[in-house]
Design a protein that fits this description.
This protein has about 230 residues and is α/β, with parallel strands linked by helices. The chain is built from six helices and 15 strands. The strands form three sheets. Strands 5-7-9-11-14-15 form a six-stranded mixed beta sheet, with no helix packed on it. A five-stranded mixed beta sheet has the order 6-8-10-12-13. It has a four-stranded parallel beta sheet with strand order 1-2-3-4, covered by helices on one side.
């Protein structure tokens, strides 16, 4: 499994789309160059007519970004995406509207006793531990859990996790936590020197990080939709 960057659309106006995309690319041109992306439509207005995905693809290519797919379960948007030759991804559980999800009722102890069934033990989270330095050009991903790195992460390296990221050494590369949309994920490091940090798609680049917590022990988390940095 390879994590993909998602561009969330709230609305689509071609000129505004191009302008905002261009500004984002200018912030981190090396990061966005030839970057494959998926357009997410979960936050798009429900009444929005089918999008012109061929136009969106062209506008992305003008900025050096490769649109490869669309994340949606809306039939009209799915059809339009397929007509444009794009892959269609189903929204993950973390990106669906929480109000639309059916709550799972846990069995009470008395109910388990009456039926003679024992409650299943909780499933172990698949955390990943790295004990050697993560070199420039390397990518390390922890699907389904936390990533724990006990050595430095070099500039040009990239570490990703569905859960939290812990770096017990200097973090100089890129760190992306909650890549499947977990907004509660956090990044912890002993020395914040990163090129980029991201939690659930919200990110800051090196220029934004070089404040009071630069080269200090820090944690990065989301406060609403704002990425915040705190002392650790």
């Amino acid at each position: 499994m390879v994590p993909l960057t998602t561009l969330e659309l709230l609305y689509f106006e071609p000129d505004k789309f191009s302008e905002e995309l261009r500004e984002k690319v200018k912030q981190a041109p090396n990061l966005f160059h030839n970057l494959p992306i998926v357009v997410g439509l979960e936050k798009l207005a429900e009444a929005h007519s089918p999008l012109d995905f061929s136009l969106i693809q062209t506008l992305c290519e003008q900025e050096g970004i490769r649109l490869i797919g669309v994340r949606t379960d809306a039939p009209e948007q799915t059809s339009a995406a397929q007509t444009a030759g794009l892959a269609v991804f189903q929204p993950s559980r973390g990106t669906r509207n929480a109000e639309a999800e059916t709550p799972v009722q846990e069995p009470t102890p008395s109910a388990a006793t009456e039926t003679g069934r024992d409650e299943a033990p909780p499933q172990r989270v698949a955390n990943r531990v790295i004990t050697t330095p993560v070199r420039s050009g390397q990518q390390v991903y922890a699907p389904g859990g936390d990533l724990i790195v006990l050595a430095p992460v070099s500039a040009g390296a990239e570490i990703l996790a569905d859960g939290n990221i812990h770096v017990y050494a200097p973090l100089r590369g890129r760190a992306l936590a909650g890549v499947q949309g977990d907004a509660s994920a956090r990044i912890f490091c002993q020395s914040l020197e990163a090129e980029l940090v991201s939690v659930a798609g919200q990110y800051k680049i090196s220029e934004d990080l070089q404040g009071e917590h630069w080269k200090q022990a820090a944690q990065i988390c989301l406060d609403g939709e704002k990425l915040t940095i705190k002392a650790m």
